Amino acid sequence: MIKSFHPPLRTLMGPGPSDVHPRVLAAMARPTIGHLDPAFIGMMDEIKQLLQYALRTDNPLTMPVSAPGSAGMEACFVNLVEPGDKVIVCQNGVFGGRMKENVERFGGVALMVEDVWGTAVSVDKVRALMEQHDDIKILAFVHAETSTGVCSDAQALCRLARDYGCLTVVDAVTSLGGIQLEVDQWGIDALYSGTQKCLSAPPGISPVTFSERALSKVGKRTNRIPSWFLDKTLVMGYWGEGQQRAYHHTAPVNALYGLHEALVMLQEEGIENAWQRHALHHQALRDGLEAMGLKMSVAADIRLPQLNSVSIPEGVREAEVRGHLLDAYGLEIGAGLGALAGKVWRIGLMGTSCTRRHVMLCLDALENTLIEQGADVASGRAAVAAAAVYAGAK
C-alpha cells in the first residue's frame, strides 16, 4: 500500500527552488475558500499591490499567472507577438533560447543576439542589429540568467529599445527580490518572474506585469491571441478591480495564500533591504570560496549575488561532490547547464536561503567534501574569511 509522502529535510542552495519560510508554509495550510469568495478577492487585490511594490511599478496589469515561470514567459510572448513580428532575442544562456522558441511558435521572426555564456548581453550588438532593421517590434532578454549567474544591463537595454521604438520583454525569474529591478523607471514593457527564487514561496506561480504600451499593442492585434488560458484580455476579467469578477479559471487558492505571505514578508523587510541582504551574504560566500581556493566563473561587475557560478577545480568529480553534499549534509547545490555542464556549480543564495547560516553551512560542507575527495583546497580559511565579512558589516 502506498503511504503518505514525507519529503526529506533539505537545505536548498541550488538555482531554485529556495527554502520556503515557515510563515509561508503555515499560510498555505489555512482553510481553502472559493476563488470567487469576497474575502479571497480582497486578498487578490492585496497581492496585486504587493507585486507592484516588489516590481516598482504602477502598472494596473500586474498579477500572478496560475502556473510556473515558464507560463509567465509564454503569457508575455503569446499576447505580444503576432505573425511576422521581428523580435530581437538575446541569448547568453539557457533561457534566452526558450524565448526564441516562444517567438517562433507564435509566428514571430527571432533575430538572435548571441553572447558567450558567462558574459552579459552586449548592448552594442543589440544596437547594431536595430540599426539594420527599422521594423523591430520587441526586444527580449534575460535580466538575471539563472544558467550562468550573469546580470545584464536591463536599464541600458530598455533605454535602447525605447530609442528605437520597440517594446521590451524581460525575464526576471531570478531578479525579483534579489537585485535592483525597476519596471517603471527603466521602462520595462512586459516582465515575468517566478515565486520559487528570491521570494521564497513554492514554485508554481509566475508574477507578470504589462505596461500601457504593451497593452496598447495587445489591443491593436489583428488576429486572436492563440492561447485561451493566457489571454490577458480575458484573464483581467478575473484579476481586475472591484468585487465583481468574471470567472476565468479556478485559481490555486492555497498557493496564492503562500505568495501573499511571502510578499508581506518582503514588504516588512523592505525591498532595498532585501537587495542589500543578498549582496552581503554573496560577499561572505564569495570571500569564503576564494579563501578555500575556488574561483568564481563570472566577472565581478556582472555577477549575480543570488546565483553564484563557481568554477570546478581540475580533477574534481563534480557530480560526486553534489551527491555527497546532499547525502551527508542534506544540502542541494546546482550543476552547470548546457555549455557549462561539468564546468561550474551553481550555488543559490535566494530569499530564505540567503542567510549567514546557509553561507557557513555551505562553506563547511563543501570544504570537507572536497578535502575528502583529495582536492587541493586550503583548510580552515573559508569560515574565517566569511566571518570577517560579517564582522565588517556590523
From TrEMBL:
The keyword Transferase applies. The lineage of its organism: Bacteria, Pseudomonadati, Pseudomonadota, Gammaproteobacteria, Oceanospirillales. Its cofactor is pyridoxal 5'-phosphate. One of its GO terms (biological process) is glycine biosynthetic process, by transamination of glyoxylate. PROSITE patterns: AA_TRANSFER_CLASS_5. This is Alanine--glyoxylate aminotransferase family protein. Pfam families: Aminotran_5. The keyword Secreted does not apply.
